[in-house]
Amino acid sequence: xxxxTAIPLVAIVGPTGSGKSELALNIAAELDGEIVNxxxxxxxxxxxxxxxxxxxxxxxxxxxxxxxxxxxxxVFAAGEYARLARPLLREIAARGRLPVxxxxxxxxxxxxxxxxxPGPTRSxxxxxxxxxxxxxxxxxxxxxxxxxxxxxxxxxHATDVQKLIRAVEVLLETRRPLSSWFAEPxxxxxxxxxLKIGLDPPxxxxxxxxxARCARMFESGLLDEVRxxxxxxxxxxxxxxxxxxxxxxxxxxxxTLDLKKALYIAQRDTRRYAKRQWTWFRRDQEIRWLRGFGDxxxxxxxxxxxxxxxxGRL
Length: 314
Fold this sequence. Notes:
Helix content: 40-55%
Distance between the termini: 24 Å
CATH superfamily of the largest domain: P-loop containing nucleotide triphosphate hydrolases
Number of helices: 13
Largest sheet: 6 strands, parallel
Strand content: 5-15%
Radius of gyration: 20 Å
Structural class: alpha/beta
CATH topology of the largest domain: Rossmann fold
Number of domains: 2
Number of strands: 6
Strand order of the largest sheet: 3-2-4-1-5-6
């Protein structure tokens, strides 16, 4: 399919708290778009406050997709995201609308656009064994990976258990390091041309926003939200409850952490997560970076100019 006949797709990326959702809403409103979530926590039901999810009454009537798909104890891999998102993009385009993918899950976006390596399918039995070993010996997965697959150990954070499990699973199942699989051909997204817009706010200003947002989360009912999830029968070590903010809320409810310390840790971990997202996206040479937050009028103006030129709507 030639460039002229390929379906346009816009992706809004950047660190958490940079205003991706607001920018995506404005682009979709201005250019008749529909929004596809690319956030690895907003796929979970019942978790709204701690994920900064755009709630139905805030969506301005613009369709949002791939939100509230899973229960908090379910695991959702990047490959599963791509399998759901790809046909959805075509459905949106078939309605004559512009697909706008928005979120900070770089691995999800890479799976969607570039495809994944042809590695082994999931082994739930092996994954449970690895998860159990990691719970009993924290840091074991990362140490194992550092010994047998240093490139992957350098790329995956020591606390990102899900990605570590996948990397070790590939290592054990194929006797090849995950990093070596990345050189294999991938099933890239076909039939689309992609514009990636990245938000790059001043770091100090972003960190101030993230600190304030974490404080608002606790003030506006994060503990009650987590308490409701636990009362529904989901265990405190559920996948979704292991993320920053939620993990600390669980510890407060369990009495192992006081509220002041919980807020401090949630703010610190959120800032660190933003830094890792910056590092991830900076490797992508296709991203068109805009300096500022997504709710800045000048940033919106610049983004709309980029998208209109991309669509040929000057």
